[in-house]
Amino acid sequence: MAKKKTYGFRRPKLSPVAWVVAVIWLLVAIVPYIFMILMGFKGSTEYIMSPVYKLPQHWSWINFNAVLHGSYFHGLLNSLLVVVISMFFIVMFAASAAFAFARLRFRGTAILFSAVVAALIVPIHTTLIPIYLLTNKLHVYDQLAGLIGPYVAFAIPITVFILTQFMREIPKDFFEAAIVDGASHARVFFQIYFPLVRTAVVTVGIFNAVTLWNEFVFAYVLTSSGNKRTLPLTVFDYQGEYSSNIPAIMAALTLAAIPLTLSYLIFQERLVNGVMAGAIKS
Amino acid sequence: MKRKPYDPLKPRITTLLWMLGPAVVMLAVYLIWPIFQTLKLSLYDWNGIDRKAKAIGFGNWVELFHDHIFWLSVKNSFILLLISALVEIPIGLGLAILIFRGGKRFRIFKFGYFFPFLMSTVGISILFKQIFDTNFGLINQVLGILHLSGLEQDWLGNKHLAIYTVALLICWQYIPFYMLLFLAALNGISPDIEEAAAIDGAASWKFTRYIQIPLIRGAMITALLLIVIGSLKYFDLIWVLTNGGPEFSTSVMASYLYTLAFKNYRVGYASTVAGALFFIVFITAISIGRITKRFREV
Questions:
Q1: What are the chain B neighbours of A129 within 8 Å (beta carbons)?
Q2: Which of A263, B69, B72, B82 qualifies as a FRET site for A62, CA 20 to 30 Å off?
Q3: If we measure between CA atoms, which residue out of B237, B277, B12 comes closest to residue A236?
């Protein structure tokens, strides 16, 4: 790709004020994060006895060890499992629906599509009580399987919306030519449209994965026992249990932040674009 | 009767069913049906345990109208909305322009500004509960060594202050998001426009004021919409940070309905609050859509 030309406005002489402001906000953004990591190394009495802004006197891994030998990996595994399974269904259900909305003509296309888009603004909490009752009725309360239904459903509107827009950008001729050549609609979807929008699938996939990875309210309401909790809930339970041992809580928070932090260090822009996907396409 | 000619472009009904069916069924079961169920439950007095719920007509809705905690929760949502819009958009825009101008030199800042997004909302809330702590919190202790003890506060325990502390944290969490949104919009402006302005010798502040800002109006409207809808739906952060307290001073609709349903076992009345939340979000979204449509088109 040719290098993008830039003009004067991207590199005016930066005033010192610009640097100062940039540095101040950098501190505002990362100091809490660094504070969290450092405090995990303190002892629980040290945290209370000496000023919190001081570095740990004796760096100790004891808190991290305790968290790792506790419920951490269980929570991590539960989260991975729920996110991966949900993602599979989200992509399959949403991509096929998006293809139908983008290319198939049927009665009520427009109305159904606007209904799906309108579903974007339904507040989760309005549905919370009925979904809780339904989960009990289906005998999936306190099971990871119970989370997948709501997770898939609430991800569908945004995913369908974004993928439909991308599929509409693929020339219609592709579709018509393939059909005239005798391909079925299913084949056109699987072999032409789906592969052509895979970048968009990845982007919106990252968005969904991050959202579900951090999801709180459904996991909070639909599970209760420790070995069924996802990672955010593991941390939440941990702070309830060890409320007097703040460094232990900080260690748990740090470990819980590792998966996303690592993804950011590896994927950077791609992760950022994924997180922003919901906002930019709308 | 004459059969319609075969049109290969027209999908078979079975094709439509398997392509649209799963998505539609999921939405129907987990989004649409629950809304009606919530509205139905709002007409009952039920503790969530008894086999039979008592139908009481619009009794819950009448109670809602006179419930000052509910109205306090609505007011809090709008306080959060107002502060978020007034703080996040200007600071986000300012930082986006800063990063844009800094170009490559400011890459490291752009990298660092994203850090709040690497923690879950639950994680952020647990962390800041400690940072805002009256005695062992980072903020009060740092104020102490700066000889500003007068500014030390019971950030989350003071019922007049707590909602603003919550708002501050929300801004901290979301400013990077809006910065990136605006930055993407700024980078989306065609380089030709930039070139033309440069050739005409526009001063850089004029370029920002008269070209960049007007051209990313769409992104600002998107930001406003996201803030409005997001503010009305707040739960995680507030629930973990304050439980809606002290004395409901940080309660929002979602946290209030959670307390009612799962702590006080007033499932019917909680559903009324949930229904009200739905109507408020829906009406707000539609009116904002209407209002901003005009601005987008100009």
A1: 34, 37-38, 41, 257, 261, 267, 270-271, 274
A2: A263
A3: B237
Chain A residues with CB inside 8 Å of B115's CB?
29-30, 33
Residues of chain B with Cβ-Cβ distance to A104 below 8 Å are 11, 15-16, 19
In which residue are the tokens 């952060």 written? B237
Decide if A1 contacts B193 (C-beta within 8 A). Answer: no
Establish whether this prediction's ipTM goes over 0.85.
yes
Q: Name the residue among A214, A91, A39, A87 with its Cα closest to residue B128.
A: A39
The per-residue pLDDT for range B123-155, each reduced to its tens digit, is 999 999 999 988 888 888 888 888 888 788 888
Residue to mutate among A126, A132, A275, with most B CBs inside 10 A, is: A126
A172 in a structural domain: yes
pLDDT average, residue stretch A79-95: 96
Q: Which fold has domain B55-297?
A: MetI-like fold (1.10.3720)
Tell me: the pLDDT tens digits for B104-125?
Answer: 888 889 899 999 989 999 999 9
Q: Is the pLDDT of residue B240 over 50?
A: yes
The per-residue pLDDT for range B158-189, each reduced to its tens digit, is 899 999 999 999 999 999 999 999 998 888 88
pLDDT, tens digit (0-9, with 9 covering 90-100), for A50-83 = 888 888 888 889 889 988 988 899 999 999 999 9
Q: CA of A9 to nearest chain B CA: how many angstroms apart?
A: 6
* Domain finish residue from A60, A84, A111: A60
pLDDT at A281: 55
Compute the half-sphere exposure of residue B16: CA atoms within 13 Å on the CB side of its CA.
14
Which of A29, A232, A268 faces B116 most closely, judged by CB atoms? A29
**In this structure, what CATH number is given to the domain that contains residue A103?**
1.10.3720.10
What residues of B are in contact with residue A109 (Cβ under 8 Å)? none
Domain ranges (residues) in chain B? 55-297
Taking CB atoms and an 8 Å cutoff, what residues of chain B touch A276? Answer: 177, 180-181, 184
The minimum CA-CA distance between B188 and chain A, rounded to whole Å, is 11
The CA distances from residue A172 to A131, A236, B43, in Å, are 40, 50, 50
Q: Which of B26, B89, B172 to mutate to test the interface with A (most CBs of A within 10 A)?
A: B26
